[in-house]
Specification:
With about 650 residues, the chain is α/β, with parallel strands linked by helices. The protein has two domains: about 250 residues, 3-Layer(aba) Sandwich (Aminopeptidase), CATH 3.40.630; about 325 residues, no CATH class. The protein has 23 helices and 15 strands. The strands form four sheets. The protein has an eight-stranded mixed beta sheet with strand order 1-2-4-3-5-10-6-9, with helices on both faces. The chain has a three-stranded mixed beta sheet with strand order 12-14-13, covered by helices on one side. α3 packs antiparallel against α5 and α16 crosses α20. The relative contact order is 0.08.
């Protein structure tokens, strides 16, 4: 009876292996659970496989998660009963894929000793340490050096990794036999390497994992391994990848899209900017004026459309722990944290706590930014000759021009369903959820029309709909910290179309100065007086700037316009590309991440491109920006 069961099990394993190899031969994805414990995941035809075998006699918590970040991995039990089946499975995979590429890399990971045990009570963790086990083969020398260099870049808790290379025929855990015997490996043209990892990601006595350190280790290690696989593929196989990120995971499991959907649902459950914008701005101005600017007005806000407690429950019900991909996990965790803080800010509107939340989300005003703002206000004239030239456009006329601009976007992307709406409950022109909102009583100077169109439609609307075209929904609602880059890019667009005048730049500088005054404890009236009397803003503009800064209880968001412009100019000076900035609503720090996802074919090129980028005048101005321009130099080239 025992023999009969064993025979049936063997037959089932053989069928599983045949199915797996057949799919790999057709370049299809494989993701299968293994008998007893384990999983095989191979994204597509790739010339490498990461292997982890869990010890039977000891707890090895967390180590299996170090391989699941890769596009091709296997983790399984190290039990003797499973050894024959595991060897047969790995042999089939290696043979199938090795035939495609002419060579194959089998990399096995395991955890070593913790070394000098860190003082867990003082939370002093040991530095990461790796031992690379490689056979004595001169042909592998340059590759092994690259492997060591890749691992040397790793830092965990700001501690640099220590890497040792051991040249030995034993490239597998010391308590186990090789998953693929050396004779079989030679026959299949398979190179076997071993990587022993100091388990700094768990407590040395209890074996409980440190989640943050484990997460950092996974993120750092996957970059090191991906560079290693790139070098192996380039040197030893017929595959010639264009970039090491092309060897990352392409197939995205359902849990990723579900997490993305849930986070986007929470994000779309409220419009933060609308919620913190007073609905009585016009009446508040008249009230302030009647009181001779001596008493701060009272602002009123929209009721919350959702219960913050429910939103937070939804937010932390999002199963981030299911995400294997460290790149996407980082995007999701940061967004979850930002949403948490913004929801708290909604609860704190009109309280002293609001400004503290604002500082956490948007930051304050650093000294360099304040000094630049003061310099701009001192050097640029307080009155602009072009501010009244050509008169003002009524909201209806501007709406018509905006519709034409949106039609240009629809010609590139028929699914763009942006609308233009004129409303009386907003304080300025703004974009909300893919539509353009125009204040009913707004006055738009004729000389500012082109700039405002490209700020709102050519940047904010365009990036929203480009984000909607991607599978990652957060690119339309906005990745964490996207606002500074968005506003900096939008202000740059104003310059590129020739619509950035001195009055506009002074207003951006005034927002920074007013923000700093608010943070330092100045009252609404005191800040208004500084703008009115010291910097000679007209009273309506001084009120508008002050209101934007003090709304909700103190909002530091408006300092990001000038800060974002500075960062954008520096980005282009260093050779940054324009196209990644159009993919959606993102921060500059996300550019390399999104480029990685494009290399991995998770994201596609942006379908929408702003009209101004194809204009010769804009192209000339952009060349000047890329050559290196400061904000002051930009202003000298702006209209007076």
């Amino acid at each position: 009876m025992t023999q009969e069961i064993t025979t049936k099990q063997t037959a089932a394993v053989d069928r599983l292996i045949r199915t797996i190899c057949a799919r790999l031969a057709e370049n299809k994805r494989v993701r299968r659970k293994l008998p007893v414990w384990g999983r095989l995941h191979i994204d597509r035809q790739l010339p490498f496989l990461c292997v982890y075998r869990r010890p039977v006699a000891s707890a090895d918590t967390g180590t299996d998660r170090l391989v699941t970040t890769e596009a091709s991995y296997l983790y399984a039990s190290a039990s003797k009963e499973q050894k024959a089946a595991l060897t047969k499975l790995v042999s089939g995979v290696v043979q199938t894929l090795g035939n495609e590429f002419g060579a194959f890399l089998l990399l096995e990971l395991w955890s070593g000793d913790v070394g000098e045990a860190p003082d867990a009570n003082a939370l002093q963790f040991a530095s990461p340490q790796f031992r690379v086990f490689a056979p004595k083969d001169e042909e592998l020398d340059s590759f092994v050096v690259k492997f060591r260099e890749s691992l040397s870049r790793i830092k965990i808790s700001k501690l640099a990794a220590k890497v040792e290379v051991v040249r030995s025929s034993r490239c597998y855990p010391p308590t186990l036999s090789p998953v693929l015997p050396s004779a079989v490996a030679r026959e299949l043209r398979c190179i076997s390497l071993g990587l022993e990892i100091r388990p700094v990601y768990r407590h040395p006595k209890t074996n409980d994992t440190y989640p943050v350190i484990l997460r950092d280790m996974r993120r750092e290690l996957t970059r090191g391994l991906r560079r290693t696989f790139y070098e192996f593929s380039r040197i030893h196989t017929s595959q010639q990848p264009k970039h090491f990120h092309t060897l990352g995971r392409r197939a995205v499991v359902k849990s990723v899209w579900e997490v993305d959907r849930q986070l986007a649902q929470v994000s779309n459950g409220f419009d933060f900017l609308l919620q913190v914008t007073p609905v009585n701005a016009g009446k508040a101005w008249h009230q302030f004026e009647r009181r001779r600017f001596e008493k701060a007005p009272v602002f009123r806000y929209r009721p919350l459309p959702a219960d913050p407690i429910v939103l937070k429950r939804m937010l932390y019900d999002v199963p981030l722990e299911r995400i294997e991909d460290p790149t996407l996990l980082s995007l999701f965790r940061n967004k979850q944290d930002e949403l948490d803080r913004k929801i708290t800010m909604l609860v704190d509107i009109n309280t002293r706590n609001f400004v503290h939340g604002s500082l956490q989300v948007y930051g304050g005003v650093e000294d360099d930014l304040q000094h630049l703002a003061a310099e701009l206000l001192d050097q640029l004239p307080s009155r602009s000759r072009n501010s009244v030239k050509g008169g003002n456009l009524p909201p209806s006329s501007f709406a018509e021009l905006a519709e034409k601009e949106i039609e240009y976007l629809r010609q590139q992307m028929p699914d763009c369903k942006a609308q233009v709406r004129i409303r009386d409950d907003i304080v300025s022109t703004m974009v909300s959820r893919g539509s353009l909102l125009i204040r009913e009583k707004t006055k738009i100077a004729a000389g500012r029309v082109a700039a405002l169109l490209q700020h709102e439609v050519g940047t904010h609307l365009l990036t929203y709909w480009n984000g909607r075209a991607q599978p990652l929904k957060l690119l339309s609602s906005g990745l964490a910290g996207y606002e500074a880059t968005q506003e900096g890019l939008a202000v740059l667009a104003e310059y590129l179309v020739g619509g950035l005048n001195h009055r506009r730049v002074r207003t951006l500088a005034a927002r920074v100065l007013a923000c700093r005054l608010m943070i330092e404890g100045a009252s609404f009236v005191e800040t208004f007086r500084v703008l009115d009397r010291t910097y000679e803003f007209d009273q309506a503009t001084a009120f508008s700037v002050t209101m934007r800064i003090y709304r909700g209880g103190g909002l530091t968001k408006d300092a990001i316009y000038l800060r974002g412009l500075i960062q954008i100019l520096e980005y282009f000076k260093k050779g940054g590309d324009y196209d990644p900035l159009l993919l959606g609503k993102l921060a500059l720090e996300h550019v390399p991440v999104l480029k990685e996802l494009q290399w991995r074919k998770v994201l596609q090129p942006a379908p929408l491109r702003p009209k101004y980028l194809d204009a010769p005048e804009s192209a000339d101005r952009l060349k000047l920006v890329c050559a290196g321009m400061t904000v002051l130099q930009l202003c000298k080239g702006a209209k007076s």
